Amino acid sequence: MKNRISNYNITELASNEVFVFGSNESGRHGKGAAKTAMKWGAKYGQAEGLQGKTYGIPTVNSKITDSLSISKIKRYIDTFIQFAKNNSELTFLVTEIGCGLAGHSKFDIAPLFKDAMDVENIHLPETFWLILKTN
Fold this sequence. Notes:
27% of the residues lie in helices and 21% in strands. By secondary structure, it is α/β, with parallel strands linked by helices. It starts with a strand and ends with a helix. The mean pLDDT is 94.
């Protein structure tokens, strides 16, 4: 955990680092971390997956009116974790996805990353680690 904490405010990326952000299912990256992701290659109109030096995980519906259910976000996170396992040459810096504009609690989202705890190339926010370590 100690060396696998993603910074709260990510402002630059090393050549092998990927910025992981919460998106909406229509891929309209207009606010929050999704807007930041645009400077590193997030593609407008692509909601999920690798986009330049970013990886989108949907947390809001396509109309951008409601948060996705925890179970639906979990499916997207599981896909991300498998992708990270298959791309061990990359380091994934996860932001507090789902906890900003999507409105979910860190206590709801952090446990969804339980299967990422042993994936060496996934770095999580410190708040997520603290929650995962107590569960």
